[in-house]
Amino acid sequence: MRFAPGVRRFALPAFGAAAALSIFAPPLAVVALAAGAFVAWFFRDPDRRPSGPGVVSPADGRVSVVREEGEQLRVGVYMSATDVHVNRAPFNGTIERVTHRPGAHKLAFSKDSERNERVDIDIATDDGPAEVSLIAGAFARRIHPYVAAGDDLSRAQRLGHIDFGSRADVLLPPAYDRDDLIIEEGDTLRAGESIVASTER
User: Fold this and answer.
1) Which fold has domain 55-197?
2) What is the model's pTM?
3) Which of the residues 57, 64, 133, 166 is marked catalytic?
């Protein structure tokens, strides 16, 4: 199993504590071992392939936002504690900017999360400008983009990850409209695999 960067920073202290506590306090050692195992599982990074043509989901989780923003559509995916937290590129393109915006840490599925800390990734695609936003949640404090301005992106490529909870949004290129959407609010998606929108149906 592949893991997202940073897993050692959180998992190794828990496993170390479990080893030390096993001598003096076995019940606490079990708790520490379980915590380390949960962290390792949380940082899992499975391989993914698109299930068809079109825009793929940037995140595992539930669709929490579908709305129009000018001539473009925004789709937000809320990641719960049980979801994979490695984010994927929804389409091919070239990174124009990667911008970190400090902010609050409200629950990622709430309306207040619009003011949360985030990293916005502006992407030039063949269908026009687009954006992926990695948004911190109530407990997440670190957003880790894997890409930089000037990088070429391939659909379903790993974009980054967020420690312990959050949301990922994709602002679709102007070429897509509501008739091209395959999803709706409440649907469950898999990053890099589930199709969000397609013009090839």
Assistant:
1) Glucose Permease (Domain IIA) (2.70.70)
2) 0.83
3) 166
